[in-house]
Amino acid sequence: MSTPRTVAFHTLGCKLNYSETSALARLFEDHGYMPVKFEDEADIYVLNTCSVTEQADKECRKIVRQAMRRSPDAFMVVTGCYAQLKPQEISEIPGVDLVLGAGEKFRILDYVDDLSKAQGKGMVRAGDVRDVNTFNSSFSFGDRTRSFLKVQDGCDYKCSFCTIPQARGASRSDTVENVLNNAREIAQKGAREIVLTGVNLGDFGNGTAVIEGEKPRKEALFADLVVELDKLEEVSRFRISSIEPNLLTEEIIAFVAESERFMPHFHIPLQSGNNKQLREMRRRYKRELYAERVASIKKYMPHACIGCDVIVGFPGETEEDFLETYRFISDLDISYLHVFTYSERANTPAAEMTGVVPVEERRRRNQALRGLSEMKRRTFYQEYAGTTRPVLLEHHKDPSLLGGFTDNYIRVEVPASAGSLNEIRSVCLNSMSPDGEAMAGSPA
Q1: Which of 48, 103, 234, 329 sits most deeply, having the most CB atoms within 10 A of its CB?
Q2: Which domains does the chain have, with CATH numbers?
Q3: Taking the alpha carbons of 246, 252, 254, 256 in that order, is the dihedral positive or negative?
């Protein structure tokens, strides 16, 4: 009996990419391949890329080099957003044998048997993204106590800084029935928490036109999906991944507040705290709407955790613009920030704009907001010192401890004897951990 070929996967980027990598891994396993760690020698390496930032492009090249040093005769397949945007460029990276675009990603097994090291440069299979109109289900499983479940893909928005519509195509969604079936399968595999993910999650069912009053409500929207998922007794916890403020309706907020399965945790992209920048970014809301959403969440759920994405150094952002953003965020009742330094992306309107902010100034603004984020996170954590909250217990880098998150997304550390992996336990939050990254807890 011949030894099965080995395959290893590496993921760059977002939760959506992690869900898709897991789906690709299951395809290979179903066809007799043996998965191994990316750090090990393998017959085939699959790199699922991101291209949100310039750093992701550089990371792709570095990882290809590392894999080829380990296994010079292995085949290297590159897919994901970067592969759709710059397939020819990737095909010329030494060691790359196959580049798959968005429409070809889930047909990977149709191509791997034809790979040959003698072809000189990577074979490219990347069609026009405008032809990508099917939805491929995917969810992550195996390396976490939670699973990332993709329910939506692509985006019809035209944000001036973003390449995602070019990389993933138009907005499209799974069916409610299939999402429910996937959620049941995830629960059967043992995961206690499911994170709903998508490129533009709130646009599930192409709901933007309905929510913004342009079309009547005929098909299932994200709010309807949430209601149906909440009925699944097999799943202990759901979280909503990043959702646009114009699509996070009061209907959704009020429902989560009453739900026992949907966690009181929202991550809402802001990108800028002044309306001039939001207009130039072609965002579909003003900062006043964002503030209303935060206030609405806190009205229904004072204990909710709210995360926020911000971009600094966008073209035309003056020092006063940045300070306006800083003050706006400082006054918001949010819990943490994800801060991104603007980087020029080819074929986007923003790349052609005047008023370029020097790179060093972008970095300074990034550090200022990261400091604000840390202050807000610690303040949020400290509010719950002495309280008891449910925690999903997970691995910790220190074997004497277990980690995990409360329902409202406070990172917690408890002694390893406090419970079992993948168990939801009531934990008393005692004080900040020595490194300030978590709350030290004890079983209630």
Answers
A1: 48
A2: 6-127 (3.40.50.12160), 134-263 (3.30.750.210), 276-281+297-380 (3.30.750.200), 388-443 (2.40.50.140)
A3: negative
